[in-house]
Amino acid sequence: MKAAVYRRFGAPEVVVLADMPKPTPGPEEVLIRVIASTVSIADHRARSRDVPRGLVLPTALALGVFRPRKRVLGMDVSGVVQAVGKKVTLFAPGDEVIAMLGGKFGGHAEFARIKQDGAIAAMPTNLNFDEAVALVFGGLAAHGYLSRTRIGTGTRVLVNGASGAVGTAAVQLAKNLGAHVTAVCGARNAELVSSLGADRVIDYTSTDFTTESDTYDVIMDCVGNAPFERVQHLIEPGGALLLLMADLTGLLRAKSRSRKSGKLITAGGVDYQAVDLEFLVALAEAGRLRPVIDRSFDLADIVAAHRFVDAGHKRGNVVLRVAADPEAPAT
Fold first, then answer.
1. pLDDT tens, 248-267?
2. Which of these, 13, 24, 100, 237, could form a disulfide with 119 (CB 3.0-4.6 Å)?
3. Which domains are assigned to the chain?
4. What is the pLDDT of residue 247?
């Protein structure tokens, strides 16, 4: 099979197309013929080792010290089930699915494996493969963090970095829960986030939201520039700071700061589950969650896709088209 492979850390050019053995599903595994994936901020960080302060060593231990342990990036996929293991009962060949591979990666290839009890679900019936995969990475992250606190009618939520993959999902999910949503992004993305449901948009290039007098019940930081010490005065008593991007200090001190402040400070990874994917699928089919795609690249243009993500200005998701359509022959 064709795959985008990187054998050393570095710039986008370290990623090259290569032939790899087609995987065989284990007894409880589903083999997916990948139609689309995304090139996400997680792929950028894994490839470049551009990680928050203090996390270089933990990242190296997880991904490889001298060279990558997982040579094929891509955390999410949409595609068609090609084969299943002998103990698989939840899926069958021909099923159209979306899946989150998580830290195992492997989505930037013609085939990917996942356990049947992993984060895999039937694809939304009203979306194509590109649109469906654009729900996965940002949707699961946003849902996972928002679920750590209580949000209801009138809850004041601020999303910092509202125009990225996680941010565009977070704005919609918070709005679905009845929240009043303030979105922080650049001026060129104001119309986009407003169309997703944001009640107010702050242009970070002209206004520093941390200097304003408005306070919030929940602040979600998708960028990494709103640590507790910078925004604690903006969080209402009993409120929450959701740190999707945090340095080592932010991660280690989250619990103690929660205890001392009486405000929930939470950081760290999301536990990817099928039930959460199914929740996102139901919202998409009901027209309450819209995937946002900046642009799409073919697998052959993987370097250009990484360059675009590296620039740091993508809106929503960057889709990687691994196969032109489900009927195209794969090697």
1. 888 888 999 999 999 999 99
2. 100
3. 2-134+291-321 (3.90.180.10), 139-267 (3.40.50.720)
4. 85
